[in-house]
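User
Class, as today's exercise, I want you to study this protein, comparing sequence with structure tokens, and judge whether sequence predicts the tokens.
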Amino acid sequence: MEDLFWTTLSLNGRQEEYHIIFENEMYCFIPKGSSKAEYCFRRGHDEWLAVNEESEQVKDGAVEALEKYLMRQH
């Protein structure tokens, strides 16, 4: 597991804080101190793939956060 960064996602009109890790070829958004869902994404063939239906619902915001992070790394 590799710790990457923290970010906020807008969910149902509320800002929620998430810790992003990289594990098993997936980027996972782990909620801070709550029982909210965990969201995970894979990178495949130049596109981001949600690993489940819950992740698909927050894909736009999560992908934006991931791309900003990855751009800063280069």
Summary: The mean pLDDT is 93. The two ends are 21 Å apart (CA to CA).
